[in-house]
Amino acid sequence: MPVRRYFSCLWLLLCYSQYSKSDSLEQYVLPSGAPPAGNWMFSLPVVLGVDKTSGCICRANALTTVVVCFGGYDCRRFPKVKTRSEILRVRTSIIDMIEIGQLDYLYYLKTLELEANHRLKYIEPGSFRNLTHLEELSISYSTGLHNIYPRTFEGLLNLKNLTMVNNGFSGILHVVPALRPLMLPSLESLDLSENIFEMLPRDAFRPMQGTRLKRLRLNLCQIEYIHPNAFLPLRNLKALSIGENELNTTLIEDFLIKMIEQGINLTFFDLSGMGFRRHLPKKLLEVVAQSTITKLLLSRNQFEIILDNSFPYMKNIELLDLSKVSAVSIGAKAFDTDKFPNLKVLYLNGNILPGIHNVNVAAQLKLLDLSCNTLNSVTPTYYEIDRDSFINSSDMKILNLSFNRIKSVSKYTFIGLDNLLILNLENGTIFHIGPGTFKSTPHLEVLNLANNPLTESENFTISKFEGLYELKYLTLRNCGIKFLDSQDNIFENMPKLEHLILRNNQLYYITAEVLQPLTKLRILDVRENFLIAWPTPLFNNGVHPQVLLFSNNKISHFSMSMLEDFNHIFRVHKNSTDIDLRGNIYVCDCNAMYSTYTWIEANASYELKQYFKNSEFLCTSPDLWEDKRVFDYLLSIKSLPCIMYDKISKLMIFIQTTPAIIMIMLLALIAYFVIKFRVYIRYWLFLGKLALGRKFIRSSLKAHTKIDFREYKYDAFVSYCNEDRDFVLEMIAEMESNPPFLKLCVYERDFEIGSFISESILNSINESRYIILVISNGFAKSQWCRWETQLAEYHRLFLEDGTSYDPLVLVRIGHIEPKYLSTTLKFLLKTKIYLSWEEQRQDEFWKKLRNVLTKR
């Protein structure tokens, strides 16, 4: 469903750290237009079949803009793809070479990815000669590819991005001669990470003299030495990543000084994971300070204490990444404007900082990431934010405090954040939100409160969410919400809300009054709650979201209000509507679905009818229709049984009404006499109880002196579903082949051919000393097994005589989904001790079961 792209918008905004290391801050501010597309573009529902010339299997996305071919040991040659697309991926094949002419027909491609083809050893020069429109090329994870020959990339005149990660290159000069500007005149980005280069000599990039290359990645290449002049041919280089190599600071200083002297103006420098320990490399930082670098990455090194003077004056730095550096303490003035006058983005996530204490956050920051600073679980402490910590942070746009043990926020916590747009408080321990907490953030557009125990102190009141008049995205996933009060409606303060996530809470219903203020709402996500079919329409008074996500709730049928809502939304948004109703407990019988069928036939719009026709939600009962499409059942309603059921049901209503009225009158008359003569009735009941009590005492004294010598045909009757047949066969072998050689009754072997199943079950239960219920997920779903469980429970209650004898034995296999458990099964599993099957402790299990069956 293409509209699902809206659902990924929030996560793209909150996962900004993945992209920020190379791009500007502007992309993290909320877009004014439609949100960017998510991973829905790259799902591959269209099967193109097996390519006969190569043996590869090919699939495409719904828009056929992406084609992926793969095939393991069957994919031996480059596939001949007939479907025209912009992106082609060939993966996990056993192609050993690519020859001239094999790719000529792909002249229209813009992106080509050849990845994880481990037998690829040779690419014939000129193979790409006809791909003049290609802009991105990836040849990665091909460990058998040791060389790229000088004329390999001939013809790629418009190639901008080239990725060759984790191949078999053992030296930089095995690759660079093929990257000459004559072959790749438009090349701007080159990624050679995860190749074993060990060293970059003086002439490492000399063949690329005159290139337009701007971005170079050499991470994880085991580089131990770089000549000071190695990068000088790359005159246009702006971004250099050499993280996770084995270089000392002197080598880095030398080549960086040379680049500065030669006017190579780097703006991005990645030194993450370089093994720097204890102290920041001050001399190296001084060299960086003299350069034009604006984005500096020092993550995954180790700087426990960052002092006020740890950094020199760095006027050009705009982005500084100090994530996962094991920092436990940071000086109050370490990032002041005196040191970093232009610093806009600061990453301090993944450290061990206890909070923000006795310090005002740097005034120049626009993005601050302090997420994941919780100490280890052995000695957990709360993450605390002092009052007025952000008093000078009026320029800040994004604040990430997620995955910290923040216990509460108040109206003093965010004072100063007047222009904040995104606030992430996900996965904290927030159980208290003070009144007026968000009044200090009047321009907030994204608020993420997911996975916090908010309802423990009844936080959902309008006063605690006051001030969010500009809010567009609100996430309240997994916050324990049981209801939303329409009288004290938190959404009254959110007139611009577009995206509301209430997933994985405990909601049984939502009312139209609660949603009434949300006239701008586009996406409503209430998946994984306990919602049932709503009796009155939800979406009226101008509320008509475009995306409704209702999957994995407890909806068993479609009420008229639901159908009216869906019909209204489809009329407003036409084919751009996305409604997800999968994973509910639909009952496919005439009683539940006949009215749905007649309403759709008479009133549904064309779009709603097409939606049901293409829907994927399934029936859960009865057994005949289990795991079949609801739409298929609706089609079957055209047959006679449901139509006759409707007519008979109307007649039955009339027939049943008259006796019911008579019965009500009779009960009312009896109630009148009971109330009038209640004193006499109590006296008679007292006398009867006294007489029965004396008789019971005498009979019980006699009964306890007797011993039950009744002979049974079987030691135990086994109730199970067909899915557990192998387990029952193993049980028979264990119980009947080993002392004391018990006799079990199973229907496949011991029921008489031609007899009625119900009669055979009753007889077998009465002829067995014990009843074993093999309870599994399949057992809980089976109607026959539920009936046998009911019989067994009646049998047990009937035999109760005050002794410890209990004929019911429960054996549980695997996980059982709660939605399939009947009332009787839930009661038995909660009140009786049962045996659980474990593969690792089989002998102990069989011993316990044998002891239970032989104890009487």
From TrEMBL:
Protein name: TIR domain-containing protein
Keyword Repeat part of the UniProt annotation: yes
InterPro entries: Leu-rich_rpt, Leu-rich_rpt_typical-subtyp, LRR_dom_sf, TIR_dom, Toll-like_receptor, Toll_tir_struct_dom_sf
Keywords of this entry: Glycoprotein, Leucine-rich repeat, Membrane, Receptor, Repeat, Signal, Transmembrane, Transmembrane helix
Superkingdom of the organism of origin: Eukaryota
Transmembrane segments: 651-675
Membrane topology term: Single-pass type I membrane protein
Domain TIR: 712-853
Family: Belongs to the Toll-like receptor family.
